[in-house]
Amino acid sequence: GLPERVTIYEVGPRDGLQNESAIVDVAVKAEFIRRLVDAGLTTVETTSFVHPKWVPQLADAAELLEQLELPDGVRAPVLVPNERGLDRALAASVGEIAIFASATETFAAKNLNSTLDDQFAMFTPTIQRALAEGLAVRGYVSMCYGDPWEGDVPIDQVVKVGARLVELGCHELSLGDTIGVATPGQVSALVTAFGAAGVPVGKLAVHFHDTYGQALANTLTALREGVTTVDSSAGGLGGCPYAESATGNLATEDLLWQLDGLGIETGVDLEALVTTSTWMAEQLGKPSPSRVVQALAG
Ligand code: HMG
Ligand code: MG
Fold it and tell me: Which ligand 1 atom is the nearest neighbour of the CA of 122?
């Protein structure tokens, strides 16, 4: 069966804008987030407190959060890799952070300057302190289905990393197809493997990039497996600066077209979202890659 309701976890302002070559003005980012919330999105990942030299596109995180006034009930998590990032997030009064782990050795080195094991030395005190401060902590696992340097990723390795994040207290685990190579059979197998390892499907979210055009098929597969939280990026913005072959995330509009068609509730208004992504594309000076935005914006 399919769920009656799905939570869309919007990552455009973070996963989208972190990969744009242009540095977007902080006022434009704030306007983008306001419009996403006005369109009905209730969870918007706004920015990252990572090293500003690693991701200069999001170096204005503190300034952005200062400019944001979000209505009650809107979750606005931020990416945090370590305790220094947590200090900055706490200073900005965030209510939720997201830790991002790698399922592979190479990506742990390239994205976190760490190793598969050592990344947990960074995450453990960060998660413990965040929880003690009353923050909710989401966990990501990157390179769940394939890695551009290592190729296939053993499913046990992915489950081990993810289960460890859940043990540390992450309330939700987002399974990242960082480079967009997954196909539906892999998605079913991974959800099943997490279940067998004691991580229930209710804790899982899926995070697809659309490099090979499989994101919607993968999403539908995940929904049939019982997943009810789906990450996506308005207009299909995105990629990952430390994984060259990655393109944008699954577009929120493409996701919404499918969910609306299936009669699955989200609370998000497609027309308002298309208008927002069209406006954002103008700001960036390039068309949205979303098929639904292209079809409806004309
Ligand atoms: P490092 O260089 O090893 O850091 O980077 P360090 O701990 O050795 O510290 C070096 C200096 O950086 C120190 O300053 C620290 O204070 C400072 P110094 O004492 O030399 O003056 N520093 C910081 N400053 C500001 N904010 C911080 C911070 N941390 C240290 N948070 C580090 C390690 C993790 C910081 C670095 O590798 C990093 O920032 N990586 C982030 C990369 C990134 O953001 N990638 C994209 C997000 S992941 C993604 O997109 C995937 C996802 O979408 C899911 C999917 O698709 O799979 C989530
Ligand atoms: Mg991503």
Answer: 34
